[in-house]
Design a protein that fits this description.
- There is one protein chain.
- The protein has helices spanning 8-22, 27-41, 45-61, 65-81, 85-99, 106-121, 125-141, 148-161, 165-176, 185-201, 205-222, 225-241, 245-269, 272-387, 392-422, 435-452, 473-489, 540-546, 552-562, 604-607, 619-631, 642-651, 668-675, 696-700, 714-725; strands spanning 431-434, 456-461, 468-471, 495-506, 509-518, 568-572, 576-587, 611-615, 635-639, 656-660, 684-688, 706-709.
- The chain is of the alpha/beta class.
- Helix content is 64%, strand content 11%.
- It contains 25 helices and twelve strands.
- Helix 14 (272-387) crosses helix 21 and helix 17 (473-489) packs antiparallel against helix 19.
- The protein binds adenosine-5'-diphosphate.
């Protein structure tokens, strides 16, 4: 079974023309293929392997399955030729696997054919038969007639090996009977050789020799050394059987010589080291490929694992997120509900607070109003008693009473003021005034207090301050009076300075900085804030020693905040205090109608003998007012209601009317309104225990000329009377 057949050359001749005319689709594959073929011709198999493998790799890289199959089959055939049958089986099987995925081609048939040859070499006749049958089927389907003789030859060889001599002989004779076409010489020679083997097997040695010699003759035409070597050996063996030792020896020698030269040639084709090196490099490449595949797989696995982890993490995060959103939503709903409830509670609380604030304001208003009438009686009677030459001991008591009365009056007035500010009952006026004159007047009115405490009293006004300004001089007076009064009160043998400086003047807006500086007792640091709170005094001793209600600074702070400013206080105990604030006042070009300064003195001669109508329902007040007027030699008539007052006024002439506001029946305001319908000249002065809803402007609007608030300071009472009686 040691057949050495070089049929592959025929196949190369048959197929190469088809292959590379149609498949030069990639330059690189055909380039490597050509290089390999060049080296085949030169018998340089190391290079042949190298370039064929390159072609395979390239085709694989480019996913060109057909080229990969063709080049792999080629490598298989190369192995077969070099008698590396196991490798040939590997490669050819691999290439057939690739061809199977494609539509049938001549190369496919060729791969099966060579696999068949290899299996014959490996004595695996069943596998060989299958492969040859496959070759026949594919060739038939592709109508490749040229393959028929080769296929038939291989079938015959297999049959012979299987001892089916008759069938084999018939098949071989078919080939032998063909003409000696050049491309059939090898096949025919092989068929003759195979016939010889059958005859030898049947012990017909002469016949066998005859076939072998015919084969040898035909072989001589083609110089197929491999074939020749086999035939020579076969002849030697037949002679040996025929006991012709001499011939047997000479043919064996011929055979051995040829075999040796063939072996040398074969080794020249591919050095055993080269082959091993190539195999090793292939093994390495394969290993590298497997490793790469493994790594890729691992990487893919890692990646998919990572993706899995990420997905799980993402899902977890999303779940957490939606859970927390859900929770937040619930919390939000709850807190919304809570907020709603709190809101409702707050609305109720606000309403309650407003009610409470209103109730407090009403209460304070009522209390202060109700206190005024009896207080007026106390003040008035004290005044009257003091005027009636009291005894020395009585004088002391009466002075104390007068002090207490005055204190209470101031206190009630302050409470009313704060109450008004807090109830937003205060309106800021915008009238023309002369700031310098206002400050000078205030200073003059307080000179007495300064002298009493032996204080140097200075007023410094920046000349740059415009003379005419627009603002609320009454509120400003309140501020200055309180601050300067305090400064003078809490300073003895020291210095009190009122300083006004122009800070800026832009777009008719003057910013003026005021400082009220004293060198008095000072305020401890911890009290600097609280002195502005209601009823807060430095200490009880201070209160006892200096008097005061503890409401002055509260009023100052509140008025300043109404004017859009704030007060600053710097003080050191024993060194003095500085109260500072700034005011923005509009500059005015017009001459202000300066209200005449209220003199605190009155001319007795002016009021003496005048005739006054007193409209007052309270008996005590009637008595006090009457006495106070009579004490100054003023004539007076007292009536206790508004209706009567109107009637009296119609029929009589008075120099002045003192009209109580709160009267039984019609009010003093309504009565005045009625009187003004027929008498527009007689001065009517309102006397009122002023309340939260009353103010000077409101009363004047009914036609009254002035207002005396109860409880009144007797001197102020006379001053106002003299002012209106003078004309
Ligand atoms: P009072 O009517 O008691 O003066 P204020 O509100 O005007 O009420 O002042 C509150 C307290 O601040 C005072 O009792 C006093 O202790 C302190 N105070 C105010 N001004 C001065 C000042 N110029 N020097 C020292 N202490 C002052």
């Amino acid at each position: 079974m040691h057949l050495k057949i070089k049929f592959y050359l025929i196949f190369i001749f048959l197929f190469n023309s088809i292959l590379y005319s149609q498949h030069e689709e990639t330059d690189s594959i055909s380039y490597y293929n050509n290089l390999a073929n060049i080296h085949i011709k030169k018998n340089q198999y190391k290079e042949v392997f190298f370039y064929t493998q390159k072609a395979i790799n390239y085709a694989q890289e480019k996913a060109n399955t057909k080229e990969q199959a063709i080049q792999t089959a080629k490598l298989g055939r190369l192995y077969y030729n070099l008698k590396k049958y196991d490798d040939a089986i590997d490669k050819l099987t691999e290439s057939i696997g690739l061809f199977k995925t494609l539509s049938p081609t001549p190369e496919y048939a060729k791969a099966y054919y060579y696999l068949g040859l290899t299996y014959i070499e490996k004595a695996n006749l069943a596998a060989a038969e299958t492969c040859i049958n496959k070759t026949a089927a594919i060739s038939k389907a592709l109508q490749l007639k040229d393959n028929d003789n080769l296929i038939l030859l291989q079938k015959a060889i297999i049959n012979r090996e299987n001892k089916k001599y008759e069938l084999a002989s018939a098949q071989l004779n078919t080939i032998i009977s063909k003409s000696d076409a050049p491309n059939l010489i090898d096949t025919k020679a092989e068929a003759l050789y195979q016939m010889g083997l059958i005859e030898q097997q049947n012990n017909r040695y002469n016949l066998a020799l005859s076939y072998f010699n015919k084969a040898l003759n035909l072989n001589a035409k083609n110089q197929n050394s491999e074939q020749k070597s086999h035939i020579l050996l076969a002849i030697s063996l037949v002679y040996d059987k025929m006991l012709d030792k001499s011939n047997a020896y000479s043919y064996l020698k011929l055979h051995l010589n040829l075999k040796e030269s063939l072996a040398i040639a074969n080794n020249e084709k591919l050095g055993i080291n080269d082959y091993e090196a190539f195999k090793e490099s292939q093994r390495k490449i394969n290993q590298a490929r497997i490793n790469k595949k493994k790594k890729d797989q691992e990487r893919t696995e890692k990646f998919s694992r990572l993706i899995n982890y990420l997905s799980v993490a993402l899902i977890a995060i999303l779940s957490l997120l939606s859970f927390s959103l859900y929770k937040i939503n619930i919390i939000r709903k709850k807190s919304n509900l809570l907020l709603q409830e709190k809101n409702n509670e707050l609305i109720i609380a606000k309403e309650k607070a407003e009610k409470a604030s209103n109730a407090r304001a009403d209460f304070l208003s009522t209390v202060s109003h109700e206190l005024r009438t009896p207080l007026n009686a106390i003040n008035g009677i004290t005044h009257l008693l003091l005027e009636e030459n009291p005894k020395k001991a009585q004088l002391h008591y009466l002075s104390s009473l007068q002090y207490s009365g005055n204190y209470l009056t101031a206190f009630i007035n302050d409470i009313l003021e704060i109450n008004k500010i807090d109830s937003n009952k205060i309106e800021i006026e915008r009238i023309n005034f002369d700031l310098k004159k206002l400050l000078l007047d205030i200073k003059n009115s307080l000179n007495e207090v300064a002298t009493k405490n032996k204080n140097e009293f200075i007023l410094e006004i920046d000349n740059a301050i415009p003379t005419h300004l627009t603002g609320d001089p009454i509120k400003l007076s309140q501020i200055f009076m309180n601050l300067i009064n305090n400064a003078l009160k809490f300073t003895k043998n020291g210095k009190v300075s009122i300083i006004a400086k122009l800070k800026s003047l832009e777009n008719q807006k003057a910013i003026i900085a005021f400082d009220i500086i004293d060198t008095g007792i000072g305020i401890p640091e911890e009290k600097l804030e609280s002195v502005f709170d209601s009823f807060s005094q430095g200490s009880t001793e201070i209160n006892r020693k200096y008097g005061g209600t503890g409401l002055g600074l509260t009023i100052v702070k509140k008025i300043l905040s109404l004017l859009g400013s704030e007060i600053h206080l710097k003080s050191n105990v024993g060194e003095g205090s500085t109260f500072s604030f700034e005011l923005a006042l509009t500059v005015n070009e017009q001459q202000p109608e300066q209200a005449p300064v209220q003199e605190n003195i009155f001319d007795l001669s002016k009021i003496k003998g005048k005739n006054i109508l007193v409209v007052e329902d309270n008996k005590i007040n009637q008595m006090i007012t009457k006495r106070m007027l009579e004490n100054r030699e003023i004539l007076c008539e007292v009536i206790d209601n508004g209706e009567e007052a109107i009637e009296v006024m119609k029929n009589n002439k008075y120099d002045l009317v003192l009209m109580d506001v709160h009267l039984p029946g019609i009010n003093g305001t309504i009565a005045t309104e009625e009187i003004r319908k027929f008498d527009t000249t007689t001065p009517i002065i309102a006397m009122t225990a002023i309340s939260l809803n009353e103010n000077r402007e409101m009363l004047l609007s009914y036609g009254m000329n002035d207002v005396i608030t109860k409880p009144f300071i007797p001197n102020d009472f006379y001053v106002i009377l003299s002012k209106h009686l003078a004309n």
